[in-house]
Write a structure and sequence with these properties.
The strands form six sheets. The chain has a five-stranded antiparallel beta sheet with strand order 1-12-9-5-6, covered by helices on one side. Strands 14-25-22-18-19 form a five-stranded antiparallel beta sheet, with no helix packed on it. The protein is built from one helix and 26 strands. The chain is of the alpha+beta class and 332 residues long. It folds into two domains: 64-190, Immunoglobulin-like; 196-327, Immunoglobulin-like. Helix content is 16%, strand content 42%.
Length: 332
């Protein structure tokens, strides 16, 4: 009788151990299956994004861009901003050239937007403008007027935009840039984010396409916070002959680290005489509408003219990069 009790206790203990083992195994299997499902979910999201970008077919509600010009430019969405009073929407994005400079790039012009119900909204004529895209510098661009959009609409399923970089690089009326699943921010001003623009890093450098003819040395960039004007000052020295009517600037353009663009006021420089081997100081006097919260400029591009045979020809501009601004300091 005593032996039977001992045997019964042993069997009960073995059954308990076996049951715990099975439960633990099932728990482990369940955790593995859940982990696998999470991995599949993340992998599935990745596959959808790749599929969306390559096919242009919506597979999720996440914003993505189909960029047929990806060999030449990078595009990043800044935002889509609506005015409920005018029922107009602006599309804002940055464009960065991967290699060469494009002096008269253009986006939009008969752009069209669609909601999930198939309703169509059109851009007002060509509401964008020509812009210079220096290599490696993000430039902010705005398609300004997509019209008759009700303020109840929260997002576009698609905005298609033409693109033109130069005569050899454009959409040819077929391969448009597509912004998919674009949320609309109503009655929010597309801010230039002047207060949050990152500071420039690195020393000021100069790209001088006329270096066989002239030397250029950076002096400084000086800002007036009241008028929001900036002056660019530099030295020029001729290496060869004398240039009687040299000129720099005229429609100069500058960009901050957020891609916001600023222009020179008309032709704020003047013609000067540059004797051989004598450094001459030159000032581009008015690059306008720069808030004093901007501490530096990613690039300032400047036209140059020495004489009829030596000038930029509208293409090879002088570029000052990583330019700090000294606010309310007089040029020396």
């Amino acid at each position: 009788m005593k032996n039977m009790k001992i045997t019964t206790l042993i069997m009960a203990a073995m059954f308990t151990i076996q049951s715990n083992g099975i439960a633990q195994k099932e728990s482990n299997n369940q955790q593995t299956e859940q982990g696998s499902q999470k991995k599949k979910s993340k992998f599935g999201s990745f596959v959808r994004k790749v599929g969306e970008a390559s096919t242009g077919i919506n597979m999720s509600n996440e914003m993505f861009i189909v960029n047929p010009a990806s060999s030449y430019i990078d595009i990043q969405l800044v935002g889509c901003f609506g005015d409920s009073n005018t029922q107009q929407v602006e599309l804002v994005f940055t464009v960065k050239s991967k290699s060469g400079n494009y002096n008269s790039a253009h986006f939009g012009g008969s752009s069209q937007a669609y909601d999930t119900k198939g309703n169509t909204f059109k851009e007002y004529h060509s509401s964008g403008e020509n812009v210079s895209l220096p290599a490696g510098i993000p430039v902010k661009y705005t398609i300004k007027r997509i019209e008759k959009v009700p303020s109840t609409l929260q997002a576009f399923e698609l905005i298609s935009s033409k693109w033109y970089l130069d005569a050899g690089h454009h959409d040819q009326g077929k391969s448009k840039i597509e912004f998919r699943n674009v949320p609309i921010q109503w009655d929010v001003t597309p801010s230039q984010t002047a207060n949050t623009a990152p500071d420039i890093t690195g020393n000021t450098t100069i790209k001088n396409p006329a270096n066989s003819l002239i030397d250029i040395n950076f002096v400084g960039c000086y800002g007036d916070s009241i008028n929001q004007n900036v002056q660019l000052v530099f030295w020029v020295k001729s290496k060869s002959g004398k240039y009687e009517n040299a000129r720099f600037g005229g429609s100069s353009q500058a960009y901050d680290t957020n891609g916001n663009g600023y222009k020179e006021y008309n032709n704020s420089g003047e013609s000067i005489s540059i004797p051989k081997d004598i450094p001459v100081k030159y000032t581009i006097k008015r690059i306008e509408k720069i808030p004093s919260t901007i501490k530096g400029l990613s690039i300032i591009s400047v036209k140059w003219y020495l004489d009829a045979g030596h000038h930029d020809r509208g293409e090879s501009k002088i570029e000052f990069k990583n330019v700090p601004i000294q606010w309310n300091v007089s040029p020396e």
